[in-house]
Amino acid sequence: MDETETQVKHGNYHNYYQFRAEDSRSDILRECLRTFWNGNNQNTVVHMIDVGCNSGRFTAKVRDVLEQVGARVKAVGIDIDEELCDRARAEFPDIEFIGGNILTIARQAATTDNGSDPIEQCMMRLGIERFDVVCCFSVLMYVHLNGGDAGLRRVLDYLCDKGQLLILELQAWKKYRDQVRRLKRDACQAYPLYEELEWRGGGGVLEDHIKVYVRSKGFEMVSESAEKSEFDRQLIFFKKRQQPL
User: Fold this and answer.
1) Of 32, 85, 173, 199, which sits 20 to 30 A from 192 (CA to CA)?
2) Reported pTM
3) How far apart are CA 97 and CA 18, in angstroms?
């Protein structure tokens, strides 16, 4: 594998779909969304953003799944890696892809009211106050390792503020430990905030910290896939309370 230190540290692997070309997430998404999606939305446009979209292939799949269960979708993807965004734009010209580091964006949103937020700019272009669906697949571990507990909470705050339905794919604590070893092995680097993390623990303890926090931001967990993907990860669905899709 030809991976840069930045790719290992932040997870923006350029060969990601070589080892995760096709998996069961599409089927899991379709099954879960069918249980509570309002088919009447087919006459309105549903706005979706995929945070950490890589080269856009799964962004396009999620859009297709949403349309299959009764939505008309306007999809957006954002990724830390501009080269991956360029690839995505070339392959999926009907989806808007923007570059940006979600950890940096969330930090700035928590401290300033500036117009440099690319997601806010996108929302203004679309004429929306929030996205109907916010997806974040296998990204929060990298946010957590690079930004610590405080950085992860800021990103969760930001995502909760921007959407009504939140779909998360979380990585287990074992994956964190594997990633720390990988960064040391492949890039001779360490995550400085790793040892300070209080949100940690196997057996679902880490995931429970995140679930409890999202619920505290005004969301209810409406579905949790019974089936795990080949990568031993579940999809978790949260919906803003008292705000129907």
Assistant:
1) 85
2) 0.89
3) 21
Question: Can you tell me which residue has the tokens 């349309």?
Answer: 67
- CA-based R_g, the chain, Å: 17
Cβ within 8 Å of residue 93, ≥6 positions away: none
- Sheet with 72-79, strands from edge to edge, namely 96-99, 72-79, 45-51, 131-137, 163-169, 235-240, 219-224
Residue burial 225-244, b: 16+ Cβ < 10 Å; e: rest: beeebeeebbbbbbbbeeee
- Give the whole-angstrom CA distance, residue 53 versus residue 84: 9
d(CA 189, CA 181): 9
Distance of CA 107 to the CA centre of its chain: 17
> By CB neighbour count within 10 A (0-12 exposed, 13-18 middle, 19+ buried), where does 94 fall?
exposed
Helix 118-126 crosses helix 102-111 at what angle (to 10 degrees)?
Answer: 80
Per DSSP, 55 falls in state T
Output the six-digit token pair for 6. Answer: 């930045």
Tens digit of pLDDT for each residue in 36-92? 665 555 567 899 999 999 999 999 999 999 888 877 899 999 999 999 999 999 999
d(CA 229, CA 26): 10
For residue 145, give both structure tokens: 């390792």
Q: What is the tally of helices (H) and strands (E) in the chain?
A: 10, 7
Angle, in degrees to the nearest 10, between helices 140-162 and 205-216: 20
Give the whole-angstrom CA distance, residue 222 versus residue 189. 39
